[in-house]
Amino acid sequence: MTLTMFLQAILSSPLLSAAVAVIALVVGYLVRLNQLLCGTPDDVRRLSPTRWSAELLRATYQRLEAAPITASSYVHRIPPKLERRYIITGGSGLVGGYIVLQLLERGQSPESIRIVDFRPPSRDDMSHGPANGVDFVQADISSAESTEKAFSKPWDPKLRKMPLTVFHTAAVIVPSDRTKLEYDFCEAVNVRGTQHVVNSARRAGADVLVSTTSASISIRPVKFWKAPWKLFSKSEPRWPQNFHQVLDDRDFWEPLRKHEEFYANYPASKAAAERIVCQANSKTLRTGCIRPANGVYGNPTDNTVGGPLNSRTCPTWTSHIIQSFVHGVNAAIAHLDFEAILTSPDSSTLPQAGRPFVVTDPNPPITYSDLYFLIKTFAITPFRTIHLQPMPMVLLSYIIEGYSLLRLKWPVLGWVLPPIAGDVKHLKPALFSICTHLVASNDIVSRPVKQGGLGYTGVLTTLEGMTQEVVEWNRIHQAAGRDVTFQSSVSLAEEIQMATNAGGVN
Description:
Belongs to the 3-beta-HSD family. This is 3-beta hydroxysteroid dehydrogenase/isomerase domain-containing protein. The protein has one domain (42-390, 399-501): 3-Layer(aba) Sandwich (Rossmann fold), CATH 3.40.50.720. Helix content is 38%, strand content 12%. The protein has helices at 3-12, 14-37, 42-45, 54-66, 94-105, 144-151, 184-203, 265-279, 306-311, 328-342, 368-378, 390-409, 462-480, 489-501, and strands at residues 85-89, 113-117, 135-138, 164-168, 206-212, 244-247, 286-292, 295-297, 313-316, 322-323, 325-327, 356-359, 366-367, 384-387, 437-440. The strands form five sheets. It has a seven-stranded parallel sheet, sandwiched between helices. Strands 6-15 form a two-stranded parallel sheet. Strands 8-11 form a two-stranded parallel ribbon. Helix 6 (144-151) packs parallel to helix 7 (184-203). It is globular and about 95 Å long. The N and C termini lie far apart (72 Å). The relative contact order is 0.15.
């Protein structure tokens, strides 16, 4: 059939003509949505007007390769040593590990620090020096018994009477699941686990507890679908709703949102955990929370920089996306800043107590293209990006989520429907709410203590922090003389879930 004959057949059939018209409208609608998802609103673009150049990256890389930034480099910025004991849940991880290193750098003895975690530290920077002398207790905080056992372990008699600070950084990160059907695991670790930590901290005599939550709590789900005519408006509303958001703490001062008003189960669980910690604030146990802005990075195990480095091939539709990030060093310092305020016995009534603070790097947000350019330019391992169109991935994500939910709702289907393997199983609609323009500010946390802030200032810019991570990546591979891979926090969460389902940690 020729094209002319095909068109004549369509025009001669009203039903076929209507079907073709509907298909054309749907395709046009999706194409327009795709155009918008590939764009950047002007007010967001103005927040990040310049990109990292090859010259800037080269100068930064050479400087950090010659003189890496370590805890001793910024020891003047770490709050002074306190005569206290410390329990750090999640102390083997990213933020918790940097808290341990900073405590040691400021002079705390290894004997006064205890890491409580699912697994012992494996970070290269914690494998030598005083960090080797830090006590480790394996625990599963989703179990009240396991948590209590770790907190009640006897201390050295000479330390027993020292006051106790708890830094609660342990959590599981599951960024793509959003339904209550999949909520049990996040709730068990992030919500009930936090309650177990608060309860055990009280019984252990702790008088300060600072918890790591997440700025992703404030993220609202992106709503892609809107009236077609609104997509062609010349004003801001043409963008999908919540396509660009500010990461702040305004939600904390309002009633806790409904589950479906969070973009995924992870932020819903962290919001509930945050309320538990902040509501526990009292004269005998002063509490507060730090919300690291969106992606936390600073070690090859992180998802932001380590994820692309470990994958070698990075399928992406986010090169143009502008976001704020925070290095684990900066997030850790914010925790110690908070502790310095809460150690005062009358601090429970201060404006800082019983509330969260958002923390980000001390610079404007960047684009993912900056990060990809850094890795392509300097990583000694292969790296390439595969640029994808966002709208087809959105549509595919609904299919993957629907398939996964079928297996959950009707387990008998597991006999005929195999589980989805590999990273593609995380491609679900929730993921797209954190692949949008997300910007944070240090305006509140950086205010002087007398003005209700923490007096926080970051020590690493995103340029320095990400470049140094690539420097460290190259150093590890050169020293090993072979390919080295690291487990991400997302895959660690999967490991913890399997262990929990199998009986957990005693």
